[in-house]
């Protein structure tokens, strides 16, 4: 006969026994103090705080941001497979969740707060880790003998941790590359996609067809508000580091940042100037719809994520398109094939009372090769484990394969996590907006001021 | 002496009973005041001296948050200027426009009901929907307003996409939803005794004189009410600025592409948006509390100033 199971926290005295009252009271008080201290100090959990391992039924709440039908179906299919493998763990899935909602729910806690959370913004990892809003997964990874370094691609691992705190794991990735209109290319006499930025600029000019004081077709929309043409996405082609070894912002000291700003401003001028481009930009439809300017033919080239391959197939806009890596600076021509990479992250809320079961779900979603591959196939995102990236089950047509290669490229880079989330990117963005609009021309002084602003914000968050 | 001693406890008991009764009657207000005003205000002051991210225990940091907001937070002074601009321009325009529309409609002989409805209906539109509709109407590239201006040979502003025009565009949106003020002014205008106008006409008063010496003295308390509530409302200006900036910028948000309010070029930052951004996006509750206290202080200062200068505005006995 097996011994009776010992409750968590060790055996307790018989509550009916007068002798047992004091120890029970002391234990309850200790537990309350420990819980309170844990809640106040953000101590890490080891994820052993529910009875799911003992086979008891547990229901988890899982929040994610996907909203399109094919995406929510893919998630639901994945969850159904998880529940089949873990009959005692049930998952309540809540779709279409924004980062703002996540922030507030994690702070508020309570019975409706999520146990497992995923976010599209890797910029928030530093904030989630440092505030302990998401628990450190290192103890669980070690316990289950999962080596993050060999499981996940390096750039994905980089954006899912902060100062050694692995508070999230990658859940599919996004790589950015070039989409181009083959018919427009042929009409302009361009035979292959550009590989360097000087070739790219020349092609963008050739592909631009004027229409009065506007455009019939624009070669490329370089403005930083032109959807995915954000400063950070461009900087991936240079591999900028943002922060120095001392943790201070080094935008002014890093020549790649000024190079990017100069290149973008020159291209803006070559294509007609900021005001004209901005006016044309306001005629664009919603980015995540068939009115996207690349799909409507308003622009002949675009920087975009791999998800657009699926959208183009679904929307069937009637354009002949193809993909390629985004061009690199001429001085870095040998690194052609690189790109900017980011993705979705998944973690466990500190307020969750079911962290053992939550870890099982996170582990399944993030590390189970079949789960990752089937999810990637369903929504055309980049798989987030090395095994899945090399899986023969991965469906990769030539256009999608371009992004898989970008993800595998050792020069591919991402934006580093910071204690205050993406605030440093906002500071750089704001400066970049001023540069492209011609409000700032002294890049050295402007970037130095931006460094100061970023350092002050980081210091404030410490 | 002994009689005094005998009566005093009875008096004390009576007074205590009266005090308790008074407090009991006042208790709904006292509880509301404590829960919804005093406690939040004291907490805001307390957290303005703390580092608090909403997860970990607050840690006392002295004036660090105050120093950050005033000296290092890059948007504070711009947001303050924007908020004051909106208070001065938007409130003035709303009062003038609301009063003007109210006066016109009270004079309309036929179809007054139609005009009242037409001017009141926009006020009922939810702010997000109204702002999105305005962003569509004022779209510099495809909006019908610029098409019309272009066809008339007039300049076509960038509206929500141009830092020089973004606040005027928000003011236009505020004027469109003037229905609330219009109704209040109409009620006040219809209450002005007709005989005072007749007397003024007999004295040879023209339209401006009738307004200056009859209409305004009668409705000045309502004008004061509109100004004070308008200032307080505008100090809390948040939704329209946030939605307009987000829609016009085209930024959905995501990794490497952060959306922070203020588009374009910080021209639509307001202090309430800062409270949200600092407190809920950056987890910097302490700094958010500093901005909230500045907002509170400014609202109090404006209101006190207006009420002190009341004599200059309010000319009738009320």
Q: Indicate the percent of residues in helices of chain B.
A: over 70%
Report the end-to-end length of chain B measured between terminal Cα atoms.
51 Å
- Using DSSP, what is the number of strands of chain A? 9
Anisotropy-based shape of chain B: flat
Describe the structure.
- The complex is a heterodimer of chains A (462) and B (318).
- Chain A is an alpha/beta fold and 462 residues long.
- Chain A has helices at residues 18-41, 69-85, 99-108, 125-130, 138-143, 148-151, 154-159, 182-187, 197-206, 231-235, 255-270, 274-281, 293-296, 307-315, 355-367, 369-379, 386-389, 398-408, 423-436, 443-461; strands spanning 58-63, 89-94, 116-119, 169-181, 209-211, 214-220, 299-305, 321-324, 341-348.
- In chain A, strands 1, 2, 3, 4, 5, 6, 7, 8 and 9 form a nine-stranded mixed beta sheet that branches.
- In chain A, strand 5 (209-211) and strand 6 (214-220) form a beta hairpin.
- Chain A is globular.
- Chain B starts with a helix and ends in a 5-residue tail after the last helix.
- The model of chain B has no long low-confidence stretch (mean pLDDT 88).
- With 318 residues, chain B is mostly helical.
- The interface between A and B is large, with 60 and 38 residues.
Sum this structure up briefly.
Chain A has helices at residues 18-41, 69-85, 99-108, 125-130, 138-143, 148-151, 154-159, 182-187, 197-206, 231-235, 255-270, 274-281, 293-296, 307-315, 355-367, 369-379, 386-389, 398-408, 423-436, 443-461; strands at residues 58-63, 89-94, 116-119, 169-181, 209-211, 214-220, 299-305, 321-324, 341-348. Chain A has 462 residues and is of the alpha/beta class.
Features:
heterodimer; A: alpha/beta; nine-stranded mixed beta sheet; 44% helix; B: 318 residues; 14 helices; flat
